[in-house]
Amino acid sequence: MASDGEKSIGIIGSGGMANHRAERFHQLEGCHLRAVASRNSETGNVLADKYGMQYLPDWRDLISRQEIDAVVICTHNESHGEIAIAALEAGKHVFMEYPLARNVDQGERAVTIAKQNGVVLRLTHSENVSPMHARLRELVRDHGHLQASIFTRLTPGRGAHPEVLFNLNISGPPALFFIYHVYPVIDLFGPVKWVEGSALYESLRADQSYQCTVNTVNVAFQNGGIGQWFWAGGINIQRAEEYRRYILAGGTLIQQEGAWLLSSRSGIEEIKPADRPLPSLEELFCKDIAGEVTNWQQHAEIALQAIRVSLAAEQSAQENRRVFLNL
Ligand SMILES: NC(=O)c1ccc[n+]([C@@H]2O[C@H](COP(=O)([O-])OP(=O)(O)OC[C@H]3O[C@@H](n4cnc5c(N)ncnc54)[C@H](OP(=O)(O)O)[C@@H]3O)[C@@H](O)[C@H]2O)c1
Fold first, then answer.
1. CA angle 104, 95, 179 (to 5 degrees)
2. Pocket (CB within 6 angstroms of ligand 1)
3. What domains appear along the chain, each with residue ranges and CATH number?
4. Per-residue model confidence as pLDDT tens digits over 233-284
5. Taking the model in full, what pTM does it have?
């Protein structure tokens, strides 16, 4: 039972992230894991037993329960928007895995309902609690305007569940399931004016699953500068490669083998993460729902801008044209 002042939490889904979040919330004071709803009764019951939660087969049942204050949404991408909207409408606080939604209308509605109903909608973008990202933000502020942001990822694999990840219906286009590479760039450089996307899917089947993808997203930022993301997955390569560059008028931020460097005409120096301690996402959420003043609204707006870019890339690829964002 939740003790005085504690918030009761329900988890939706019982896969990898549901287990990870349950373990984290279980360790925190101020919240109590009460129930788990999952369509998978086997993994759902295992998770329920591990933390003394009730198991429910249907998430709609969970969000209708009066004793539940907040829900943690850990299902696949295509259901995030629907579940979040229903939970927020029921007056529950929501902590959810990215992406915010599979379509922009759902994302906008979720953010609007959260604000109208005075409940929290916290997305789990880890940049918001990352000391390195905090330092990059300071460097971006101090090193002049953006000229270009570049991201490249090449990977041989298709994840632990390729039938889920490499599936346009379930996980969405690559720019949506790789949203964790779009979000930090939008957080650093602000909203986007237009988006151009192109996409190649090999062995695309009727159920929208595919074998291999090559994708590009190009954008112009409202504040100036251009951005580019390139992903290729399931390709013929020995091991994954990743490359990030933020080219600013006063120097270039380079990610190399896990480290960040600042390179300029005067030399190259390693970037150290900010040394102030930052709360975890779960701790932040506990503060959010305890009514402490936090910044979840600002983060939700950035998450919304990030899905606008990802989904405009899908539209651009489908319609073979540049898509302008009205922000
Ligand atoms: N924040 C992060 O660092 C991070 C990292 C990885 C993933 N993610 C995100 O976390 C989410 C979950 O990923 P995961 O790796 O935990 O996936 P997972 O291991 O496949 O687990 C997903 C769980 O949700 C259930 N589920 C899926 N769709 C559902 C629906 N429509 N209704 C009810 N239950 C549903 C699945 O049931 P079945 O077992 O029946 O399929 C499973 O229990 C994804 O959106 C992913 O993008 C975030």
1. 45
2. 13-18, 38-40, 43, 59, 74-77, 79, 97-98, 124, 161, 164
3. 7-126+280-292 (3.40.50.720), 128-277+307-324 (3.30.360.10)
4. 999 999 999 999 999 999 999 998 889 999 999 999 999 999 988 999 999 9
5. 0.96
